[in-house]
């Protein structure tokens, strides 16, 4: 009833939609977990600098007070970029695997 090419294309599309639908929850969870850690890291750096260097590192504390949040949010954005990039690269490799399997199947039909 249905052409195999159409079914294959539709199944690959369904697989891709399912893959990203499942992973959007993991991406969101990872993002919020990292955002929850930002204030703790911010305060922990303050504590470590004052404990180890004391008030002699006042310029470091001042720089961290103004730039620390931006630095940590930049770190979160870089983490999320690489997280999504890894998921995307994995899926691309899977697509390449499917293309190779299709080519192998065509070769098998030629031999038979």
Protein architecture, described:
This protein has helices at residues 4-53, 58-111. The longest helix has 54 residues, at 58-111. The protein starts with a helix and ends with a helix. Helix 1 (4-53) packs antiparallel against helix 2. It has one domain (4-111). It has 112 residues and is mainly α. The chain contains two helices and no strands.
Overall morphology: rod-shaped
Total number of domains: 1
Share of residues in helices: over 70%
Relative strand content? under 5%
Multimerization state: single chain
Mind summarizing the main beta sheet? Answer: none
Q: Helix segment count?
A: 2
Q: What is the residue-mean pLDDT, rounded to a whole number?
A: 85
Show unreliable segments. Answer: none
First and last CA, distance: 24 Å
Structural class: mainly alpha
Radius of gyration: 24 Å
* Secondary-structure element pattern, one letter each: HH
Task: List descriptors.
112 residues; mainly alpha; rod-shaped; membrane; transmembrane helix; transmembrane
What is the topological layout?
Elements: H1 4-53, H2 58-111
Helix pairs in contact: 1-2
Transmembrane segments: 20-43, 63-84
Keywords: Membrane, Transmembrane, Transmembrane helix
């Amino acid at each position: 009833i249905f052409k195999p090419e159409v079914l294959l294309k539709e199944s690959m599309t369904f697989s891709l939609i399912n893959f990203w639908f499942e992973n959007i929850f993991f991406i969101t969870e990872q993002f919020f977990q990292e955002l929850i850690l930002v204030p703790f890291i911010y305060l922990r750096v303050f504590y470590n600098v004052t404990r180890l260097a004391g008030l002699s590192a006042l310029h470091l504390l001042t720089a961290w007070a103004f730039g620390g949040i931006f630095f940590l949010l930049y770190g979160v954005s870089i983490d999320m970029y690489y997280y999504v990039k890894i998921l995307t690269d994995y899926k691309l490799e899977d697509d390449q695997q499917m293309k190779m399997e299709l080519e192998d199947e065509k070769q098998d039909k030629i031999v038979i």
